[in-house]
């Protein structure tokens, strides 16, 4: 069975600091992995996705994530946080032969001035 | 190009009342999804349509929830009667088949309908 664990329901960083949001997955087969962002009162927007090509995936807004099979992780990073990055971030996994996406419980990112 | 449209954005009802949500997907997207997002959690799939056919409704509480996508375009999700525990954000998403058979379809989400049951 697939599952996703996001470590830390709330992360706070200073503006300009490194952003690191953690995600670990479990899957019996190589998965597809996603990061979505949700701004207040809005739907989810795809930041990036891993599809078994390059292990380092670059997304929108300067975010990137690295697939590490040995650690079953897909952590999201951004070198320098901006105030506009404050939002809820969801990691998600999908079996390669199915359409159902399993979402993590989310991490709320706050940016301190 | 317009994104996924949902209405209403907010709905407050008393328990035991019926409620309906409407979704218009992105033009040309054959696949439509309804998700429920409880407070502080990620979305959970309720039902998935391929055109007008419901191909995955295993998580839809069929005693009180129903959905339809009659012409394979827009869709309606209904709850009758609503219970206190149904308070959540109901998200609609749509996707089209990826041109790359090795890449999953990207799902595009609407803004959601926030339901409050009193």
What features would you highlight for this structure?
heterodimer, A: 113 residues, mainly beta, six-stranded mixed beta sheet, five-stranded antiparallel beta sheet, 0% helix, 56% strand, globular, B: 118 residues, seven-stranded mixed beta sheet, four-stranded antiparallel beta sheet, 11 strands, 47% strand
Share of helical residues of chain A: under 10%
Radius of gyration of chain A: 13 Å
Helix content of chain B: under 10%
Please tell me how large the radius of gyration of chain B is. 14 Å
Distance between the termini of chain A: 41 Å
Walk me through the structure.
- Chain A has 113 residues and is an all-beta fold.
- Chain A has no helices and 11 strands.
- Chain A has strands at residues 3-7, 10-14, 19-26, 32-38, 44-50, 56-58, 64-68, 73-78, 87-94, 101-103, 107-112.
- In chain A, the strands form 2 sheets. In chain A, strands 2, 4, 5, 9, 10 and 11 form a 6-stranded mixed sheet that branches.
- Chain A is globular.
- With 118 residues, chain B is an all-beta fold.
- Chain B starts with a strand and ends with a strand.
- The relative contact order of chain B is 0.32.
- Chain A binds chain B through residues 4, 9, 32, 36, 41-46, 49, 51-52, 90, 92, 94, 96, 99-101, 103-106, and chain B through 4, 9, 31, 40-45, 48, 56, 91, 93, 102-112, 114.
